[in-house]
Amino acid sequence: MCGIVGYLGSRDPKDIIIEGLSKLEYRGYDSAGVAIFNENQLVRVRAEGKLSQLKQKIQDLNLTFTGPSGIGHTRWATHGRPSEHNAHPHSSGPIMLVHNGIIENYLELKKELMGKGYQFESDTDSEVVAHLINDRWKQYGNLLTAIKKVLPELKGAFSIVVLNQENPNELVAFKDGPPLILGLGQNEYFLVSDVAASLAYTSRYIYLDDREIVRVTPEGYAVFSESGVRLSKTVTEVAWSADQVEKRGFRHYMLKEIYEQARSVAHCLEPFLDREQFRLKPMMEWSSVEGVHIVACGTSFYAGIYGQYLMEILGGIPCRVDVASEFRYRDPVLSPGTLVLAISQSGETADTLGAVRLAKAQGSPVVSICNVKQSSLDRESDVTFYMNCGPEIGVASTKAFTATLVLLNLLAMDLARYRKRLNADLEFQMLRRLLELPSQIEVVLAYDKYFQDAADALKRYRGFLFLGRHVLYPIAMEGALKLKELSYLHAEGYPAGEMKHGPLALIDEQMAVVVLAPQDDLYEKTLSNLQEVKARGAKVIAVGTLEDEQLKSLSDRYLSIPKVPWNINPILAVIPLQLMAYHLACSLGHDVDQPRNLAKSVTVE
Ligand code: F6R
């Protein structure tokens, strides 16, 4: 939610900042803006809409920037509608800042500042911080001191980078909640929301912790605690390369990421395989675990529901799953011995972090599945299992989902082995099946043309139901989510057995029904549900195993996946759904990498 870039160095700050913002646009794309020094003058340019509008405006104005510093922002609106006057950077006197997050007590602060005569030009909460810093700066004459005074007054979630018109050679930034990362180049510094923004220039980063302040000048950087104590911070070498955040010839990041799944699944498996013994390496200590409680949001939540089946079926212990935003506000009761398992691609989702903090406060151990190393979730968890699937830029999550399903298999196997429910033979068979996954994913991807044809046929429908049973039920919900977030059409995922309890009433010739019916123990039951919707006039698209003639004869369109065991079916069955959603959205002319109203990495609640 909102991407920020600050730069101090000898390169052209405009190029660095615009390029950085283009890598962060997935975090918000309602408006964008920069403030960059030119001959000691701070010049601000802002534009409503996507970053391309800002670039055009800078070009039209024929502006040059000499540096040495600047800040930029791409916005996902919280307070104040998307418009130029609400776009960042916000200013007050010589102070200019960019903000990611929400200032919860902004109304109170605004009142106080208005009382002192400050005039507001936007409807945002962020502008309050600019005036507040200006106010304290006037008092103390030093930006760092001003920020130290302001930080205790702010409530909410924020990461903020500040420039002062009076001193082009200084950037000060601070955070509480959303990520803020300091990139260390050769005599140059980057302050970014995500390393993707500056990977082309450096792989060395410092991850700021909450309520820390960093000051950057040409002489170096210094990190301080809120109380002003100078801190020594670890420099992390980031293994991701700049090339990984490019589209590499694909039309969209999402398509590239769907196609990366064979490789990403293999990368995700690798660290946990003992190839000599052909066994799963021990993953974690289960002796005190009597139950598992999974917390996550969106696609990661659906992965969590799949995980619930595995933990109970393979592991034989109770498992619950919660949407993190519900869990954290309902006084959940976590019995002793409950392990909390948080799932998050970004590791920065505010509600998932809130749920984890609550669980920790209640004394529960927290294990997480996460893609971004050094993210807040990674740092706050007792143990993290990495998805290892490389940067995911497309707003709709794809490769992180399949990697998570693989990790959930491994964790459930590890638990089952500890609880003596997985003998060596079964362990061998399950591992073999997981190792075959990359080539089976390639097989499914090779059918993309059929998924595109199916998507074409779906264009005339106004509503969609996705049906599945057992471990395919979360896949039905994930398929519906992908379709609605990209196509802006109504879609619901349902357990196939629930249809006659209400949703059958929705069926008419405007409704398409996607039925997940690969061969498993509940195949016959799913087929009966399919007949029920078919009998009521729905158009049926079925996903089944190989050339399933019976299923084919009952469906209007048939999409095939290889024959695999029940726990693997979901990992393959989701791919046609991802691709159908992708193609449908493309043919409707929507921007699949940046769907309307959404942003990746939801750092506000
Ligand atoms: C949907 C999607 C979102 C995310 C959700 C959680 O395609 O991407 O629903 O899954 O915002 O994000 P993470 O996994 O980063 O916590």
Secondary structure layout plus pairing:
Layout: E1 3-8, H1 13-24, E2 31-38, E3 41-48, H2 51-61, E4 69-75, E5 90-92, E6 95-103, H3 106-115, H4 126-140, H5 143-150, E7 156-164, E8 167-176, E9 181-184, E10 189-192, E11 204-207, E12 212-217, E13 220-224, E14 230-231, E15 236-237, H6 253-259, H7 261-269, E16 273-274, E17 279-280, E18 291-296, H8 298-315, E19 319-323, H9 324-327, E20 338-344, H10 350-361, E21 366-370, H11 376-380, E22 383-386, H12 399-418, H13 424-445, H14 448-458, E23 463-468, H15 473-487, E24 490-495, E25 511-516, H16 523-535, E26 539-545, H17 549-554, E27 557-561, H18 569-587
Parallel strand pairs: 18-19, 18-20, 20-21, 21-22, 23-24, 23-25, 25-26, 26-27
Antiparallel strand pairs: 1-4, 1-10, 2-3, 2-4, 5-6, 6-7, 7-8, 8-12, 9-10, 9-11, 11-15, 12-13, 13-14, 16-17
Helix pairs in contact: 3-4, 4-5, 7-12, 7-13, 8-12, 8-15, 13-18, 14-18, 15-18
Model description:
The protein is of the alpha/beta class and 605 residues long. It has three domains: 246 residues, 4-Layer Sandwich (Glutamine Phosphoribosylpyrophosphate, subunit 1, domain 1); 186 residues, Glucose-6-phosphate isomerase like protein, domain 1 (Rossmann fold); 138 residues, Rossmann fold. The protein has 18 helices and 27 strands. β9 and β10 form a beta hairpin. α8 runs parallel beside α12 and α15 packs parallel to α18. It is globular. The protein binds fructose -6-phosphate. The site of fructose -6-phosphate has 15 residues, from α8 and α15.
Note the main attributes of this structure.
18 helices, Glutamine Phosphoribosylpyrophosphate, subunit 1, domain 1, binds fructose -6-phosphate, single chain, 605 residues, Rossmann fold, seven-stranded antiparallel sheet, alpha/beta, 3 domains
